[in-house]
Amino acid sequence: MNLNTIFTNQRTGNHPATSASRTDFQRDFDRIIFSAAFRRLQNKTQVFPLPGSVFVHNRLTHSLEVSSVGRSLGSAVGEFIVKNYQPDLSEDAKNFYHNNLHNVIAAACLCHDVGNPAFGHSGEDAIASYFEKNESDLKQKFSEKEWADLVNFEGNANAIRVLTHQQNGKDEGGTQLTMTTLASIAKYPCEAVAKKKGVIHRKKFGFFQNEKETFLNIANAVNLMQENEEPTIFKRHPFVWLVEAADDICYNIIDMEDAHRLGIVSTSDCENLFLDLIKSENQNTKRVEDKLAILTNANERISYLRAKVINALINKSIELYETNFASILDGNLDKALLDIYKTENKSLQEIESFSIEKIYGHKAVIEIENAGYNVMYELLNHFIPPILKAKSERKSYDKMALKLLPKQFLYEEGSDYQKVLGVIDFVSGMTDNFATDLYRKIKGIEIGMTM
């Protein structure tokens, strides 16, 4: 890929760039911060049930922290590119990598989870399994590619839709971000029928059929390498690796800190795991040990170690990105940066294994995943059968159900696929609390008027 042609300030919706005190990429960051989709992340589960008596991360606080890490990665890599590829760079490119790459990565990190439904990954599973379980009734209503979108529902693909789709009564181009920021969140730049396990850029899929033309425009604007035309497959954009690394750094480490605050993980276990990782990257740990000797509060000790671990992982990610930069530009790197590191660092392997056993398998996490799955499934089951019926065939209860769908999600003149996507937009955009409240009301568990 050509470093001079993989970025652009072109926006979705054909909105021209404007002169302002902020750069176009800073404006991306601000647009996301003020968007409704981003605000709703404050009440979407990251790992642990919300709300609780002890503060833990939700998807909004997680995204803010990922963005902070991403900014650091973008700054360092921008300097690396300008220093090592200066003869090959245009003046615009030098300015971009020096002054704006960090803004792109920060903005992309900020919105990387906006397509994720409530209740964590169980929300995604509920949407996909709804169509799997009702295949005999539904599959014939959709094309092969449309059906693949539905039975493989994916938060990454949904993020592209959330950020670019024009809802009824709203402006063209969705949030109207630059194509550069949008390309930077496309971890799986292929359509659903091209999914393939074991291939990093095809592990999942990156866009729905409804947004395929939009994604092709994004790919064209930033000159993504096309691997295959039918089905459509692109190589990852070079900036994706930084967004992915920032996300991996945060959830690997901060989930552990949350578990400690909740009493799921002991202070000694958490300290030992963090210290081992710090020692594996820094032979001189005297400064860390001296600091710990002063700190007597358990939460403060873990917070300090968490900061040191994240710093170590940022530095390692930058090193690995620079080492593998040629392969990244050629589209040949086949493993995430932290996965590369994991193969050579036993301490990071131990943190992952410990998290899977003690955190992600904890009863509270399993309970919220089960509850969330049922809530999301039943909400889909309330809206999808009525929306797929012809207007003349709808009974009174069908009409009553559809009155609960806000107008921006109703595509009565569209295809069955577009009608169903409208329902998915509504349900996947719900917060944990809103989804639970609506579920309780439509099931008659809770009856009464609330505003």
TrEMBL record:
Name the record gives this protein: DNTP triphosphohydrolase
Keywords noted in UniProt: Hydrolase
Limits of the HD/PDEase domain: 55-261
Gene expressing this chain: dgt
Lineage start: Bacteria, Pseudomonadati, Bacteroidota, Flavobacteriia, Flavobacteriales
GO annotation, biological process: dGTP catabolic process
Organism: Chryseobacterium manosquense
Short name of one Pfam family: HD
Region (Disordered): 1-21
Lineage top rank: taxon: Bacteria
